[in-house]
Amino acid sequence: MAKAHTFTDNFNDNSINTSKWEAYGPVQEVNHRLEIRPDGGIANYAGCKSTAAYDLTDSFFHLEVRQALLQSAPTSETAFFARGPGTERILFSLGAGELSCGLNGTTLAHEPYDPERHRWWRMRESAGMLHWEVSANGREWNTLVSEPAPFTPTSLIVELQAGCYQPTSSPGVAIFDCFNTPPERLSRRAEERRLSAQATREQVARLAAERHHPEHFNNNDEVNYPDRPFIGSYSKGLKHDSVGDPDPISYGSLLRALESRDPGDFEEILQPSGALKLVNPQAGLTFELSGPDPQAVTQPPAPRFDSKRAAAEMGELYWMALARDVPFINYASEAGIANSIIERAIRSLTTEFPLFGGTPTVTAQNLFRGIFPGEQVGPYISQFLWKGNSDPRKPDGQGRDADEGFITYGSQVIDQRQWTVKGFPEIGAAADYMTQFATWLAVQNGRDDRGKDQFDTTRRRFIRNLRDGAQYVHFDQVVNAYLSAAFLLLSEPLGNQLTGMGASRPQVDKEFPCDQGNPYDPPGTASDSRTQVGFATFGPIQLMQLLGEVSGRAGRAVWWQKWGVHRRLRPEEYGGRVDNHLSSRRTYPLDSSILNSLSTGLLSPYFSERWGSFLLPQAYPEGAPLHPAYGAGHATLSGACATILKAYFDESAPIENPRIASADGTALVAYTGADAAQMTVGGELNKLAGNIALFRNAAGVHWRTDYSESLLLGERVALGLLLELSLTFNEDGAFFQFTRFDGSRVRVVDGRVEPA
């Protein structure tokens, strides 16, 4: 029988070799690697197993694990194992953030998973001993555990597997490569980029120069539909034909510029006369002098245009558009009314679109919400978007109590209420746009419809529904919300925020302590300085600097993903394909689930009768901005800023007296849900990030995946910046500590990340 190490596959031919592997479930060999994408929403496993058995004695199996399933999905598993003809099994398994080594059903060792240090997995037999080994580069190996072999491993089937043993929202993608083959060199383009970044930054930080640069892959939608070129890709602001499909020559001029990276080629992109300009396609080509290079972080491919996942995400967007004017405070009661929009949305997302990417069992509590820790606790809106900071020196009604919604910036005040847009029947207008095909087509060709919003000028209101949320993220610069949260956390005095703080002094006697790694705060701890306070380091100046700094770096990283990698179409463009298809103008390879729901299913009572088309109603007159959907700028910057705030403040501090906006948004009233006492600073910061990201979905300009993957991208940028910053401190024992979006707690100290 052949030795184990003679069984090789570099997965480079983009087609599973059926003489070597038997595949099951959603598995594909693509982009010169093996991708396993288990279905979300159901318990299932996918993978491939060898068609022949191999002899492991004095031999080995190894592979590169480029990406595991999301560790935020606690019921997901990524596994690599060899099994004998009976119950014999030699196993690597990764789940809930732990990499485990197993033998015949017994766990021999486990440790927190580090995707860099544990990039390569190897099982080896020598002289009757079995060894489980890991490597960062596929060359130098570290042994996790060794064990005498309880059987002779001469006839083993090897298997690569990923899946969920319970229904799981958005489990992600497992990516394997280099099975029993040496590590492959990076592509010429990626290698050139890595070396250029090192040369630019080697005087700044050795840590940054040695950071791994990944290769970037998209979903191949630019070549997936040769009979309908570029229908699955972003093209707004370029030229289109009479039904809104991209003009191949115009689209090709964009690709030429992105490939050449020549600034002159960007000036030659072919747009319709008078079209709005494309937004910053060269941003991701810049170099950074601190934090990760824009191309040193990446995102997995977005769902394909023809996929069931894309259709399910679009189904959620249609429901969000329909539910824009339903107050959050009414979701629970509306869910109990048969055939209300909320009840239908819950039913539709559960039955028609279970792969939409949220929690599989949809309820009034998690409808349209994010999936990360804290996002489904308490009201839909983060307290940081509603409450103000209390100040006993102020008059009643003008910021004395937190529920008045005023945040003090020194001597200036920010009102958490806003001018909202018309959209309620009593106002007499509906603020939904681009629902007529002629308007939609003109906007796709770059017509400038900005500034046509109709405002409700009767009074300012707290965010009460999805339309208000969409309005909030229409004109912001993203960092606004996090600066406000920072001022609130820095200045809230001790005591009851609603009934007086006694003698507590704002910005002096602090309600919310800093993280324990801060050498100056919280006072009274063992590490607290006897003679000093923080200001330019570990104080408000550094915090404000970091929020702005990480925003810019996160923005440039996600702009590379948008233009340089994925070029995912906007939901409004997908809606145009749907409208063309159902109106018989042209046919497309759309998944039947979205077509069925719109024509005969739960969405059909509203489309096309309400607006006269099947287009996705937009909250903004101009629809989406002129840059691709994936990743999302608001979501990436939110993930980065929330990470900075979580690293600075004590996440476990409770949020007292939670509030919720009244149905008309004129007041904040007490939130009395059973989970009111479970709200924390960390959870509400995660929720703030989710709110800012998903409000863009509510506007109709982003997808669910844009939120879920882009928050993680922003977190990676922030973590890279904190890593470099941690090398610069003069203070003894200083560190940053926070909970990642996947639920794991990490500490950043002296240029390394370790479990907290």
From TrEMBL:
<dbReference type="InterPro" id="IPR016119">
    <property type="entry name" value="Br/Cl_peroxidase_C"/>
</dbReference>
<dbReference type="InterPro" id="IPR052559">
    <property type="entry name" value="V-haloperoxidase"/>
</dbReference>
<dbReference type="InterPro" id="IPR036938">
    <property type="entry name" value="PAP2/HPO_sf"/>
</dbReference>
<protein>
    <submittedName>
        <fullName>Vanadium-dependent haloperoxidase</fullName>
    </submittedName>
</protein>
